[in-house]
Design goal:
This protein has 18 helices and 13 strands. It is 37% helix and 8% strand. By secondary structure, the chain is mostly helical. Helix 5 packs across helix 6, helix 5 packs antiparallel against helix 7 and helix 17 packs antiparallel against helix 18. Among the domains are: 67 residues, no CATH class; 68 residues, no CATH class; 65 residues, no CATH class; 38 residues, no CATH class; 70 residues, no CATH class.
């Protein structure tokens, strides 16, 4: 009886151990779901390993890419030894919103290819040799060229720099063979012009620059780029910018600037915004109509672009952290800057007062015209803020002079000698730029003043006060609108 009891306990432990091992293994395998299996069918039969997928087997000796199982593509994965599934331990789960690997090319998500797509290397770059294939990258945003073999890659300038160091013809031939087709063509044209226009023994570069300017600057384009003038073959000069909408109104919105490229042959448009791309706030409004439908929200986001997406994420993070409900008052109070940045990021600076905008970049307005009850007209200008949503009045002058600030501090507990820093700070905030500065100078002079014995200091020393009034003074002449 005792022996059978021990045996029963041992059997029970073995059952738990097998179950635990199976659970641990299952976390790194995936069942393809091709057959509906009973418990007796869940483990492969003795045919596992014959290379044929039999009943009860999820696979048999084959390998697949992670993406074929709905996972982010990393590498090929192998069928497990018992044919019960694939070892997915090296796969990385894809974000639900990531469409890469679903077998459909989606340009609106900026995909240029799908997992498994290939393209001849020479179609990507003519400097690659023919015969090899580039493969779609893991993120579907480009073709990976790590299997492509480079042919000649050197530019005309690189060919020249190589040849001038050569001591024999074999070396020069090696320099030429390393050149791209374009580089060889340009260098050949330069040599031909040299032979036709330069005396034997003439300096190659000096003579061709003087007599073969077109061929010379095609070989050395960077030598004119950046000299401040638009030379032959140049479209723009370094540091030049052009509004994207002006550059290509059929493709880009206005408001963003394209920059002249590094060799002055055209404009880089990576900062431009497509005509059909949703702005940050348009994406937000689109998401609000989705009523929590994740697929709908993903579709809204796919219609935007990186600049919009980052500003949207910043705004939504602020809403989540600062506001516990959908009270617009909270959004305006706590997340006003983030909301403004989202509303106008694609329109601020396009020269038009668009929806949500109060002004345009570079505009100024007399401070008195911004708020006649608060700022003194004719003394300074307010500037349009970074988001074009309000006037920045940091440079505006209020109405309170030094004497008004002093009168305010007199009313603080303890008067001018008060230690109530909050009260003094509040009074200073009422002062104009000059009024606040003069009061600070007046007060600091007194606080740091003592008699000759050093025993009577600050506001306890009338001589110090008289001296401050004489040297700095807060001249009377109160403005009737003070305090504002």
């Amino acid at each position: 009886m005792k022996k059978s009891g021990v045996l029963a306990v041992a059997c029970l432990c073995l059952i738990f151990l097998v179950a635990a091992c199976k659970k641990e293994k299952d976390s790194n395998i995936i069942d393809t779901g091709t057959d509906s299996k009973t418990d007796s069918d869940s483990v492969a039969t003795g045919d596992c390993g014959d290379g044929v997928k039999n009943k009860g087997e999820a696979c048999d000796g084959d390998t697949v890419g992670c993406e074929t199982l709905g996972l982010y593509h990393i590498k090929e994965i192998d069928c497990l030894a018992d044919c019960s599934g694939y070892d997915i331990s090296k796969c990385v789960a894809r974000d639900p919103g990531d469409k890469c690997g679903n077998g459909r090319l989606e340009p609106e998500a900026y995909e240029v290819c799908e997992i498994g797509d290939t393209k001849p290397c020479t179609e990507i770059n003519p400097n690659f040799q023919e015969g090899d294939l580039a493969t779609c990258a893991d993120n579907c945003k480009k073709f990976e060229t790590y299997d492509c073999q480079l042919a000649g890659t050197d530019t005309c300038k690189q060919i020249y720099d190589c040849i001038v160091l050569c001591a024999d013809e074999a070396c020069k031939e090696d320099c030429l063979s390393a050149g791209s087709e374009d580089g060889k063509t340009r260098y050949g044209a330069l040599v031909e012009c040299f032979d036709a226009n330069c005396a034997s023994g003439a300096d190659f570069k000096e003579c061709t620059e003087e007599n073969c300017s077109e061929e010379y600057y095609l070989c050395f384009p960077a030598e004119t780029c950046g000299n401040g003038s638009l030379d032959e073959g140049e479209v723009c000069e370094k540091e030049d910018t052009k509004d994207c909408g002006e550059l290509d109104p059929a493709q880009y919105r206005s408001g963003k600037e394209a920059k002249c490229n590094s060799i002055c042959t055209g404009y880089d448009t990576y900062n431009c915004v497509g005509l059909n791309a949703l702005t940050c706030y348009e994406v937000y409004e689109c998401i609000q109509d989705c009523a929590g439908d994740t697929a709908c929200e993903d579709a809204c986001k796919a219609k935007s672009y990186n600049d919009a997406s980052s500003k949207l994420d910043t705004m939504l993070t602020c809403y989540e952290e600062q506001c516990s409900n959908t009270d617009n008052g909270c959004y305006d109070e706590k997340c006003q800057f983030q909301t403004d940045a989202c509303k106008t990021h694609a329109t601020c600076g396009d020269g038009v007062i668009d929806t949500y905008e109060m002004c345009e970049k570079g505009e100024t307005k007399d401070c008195g015209a911004v708020d006649a009850n608060k700022y003194e007209a004719g003394t300074a200008d307010a500037t349009c803020n970074v988001n074009c949503t309000r006037w920045s009045t940091l440079g505006c002058f209020g109405f309170c002079a030094c004497s008004e600030v002093m009168a305010c501090v007199d009313a603080c507990p303890g008067g001018q000698a008060t230690t109530d820093d909050e009260c003094v700070t509040t009074c200073k905030s009422l002062g104009s730029k000059d009024g606040k500065a003069n009061y600070n100078a007046w007060r600091n002079f007194i606080l740091n003043c003592c008699d000759q014995n050093g025993t009577k200091c600050g506001f306890a020393n009338q001589d110090c006060i008289d001296k401050a009034n004489q040297d700095i003074g807060c001249v009377a002449g109160d403005n009737a609108k003070c305090p504002y």
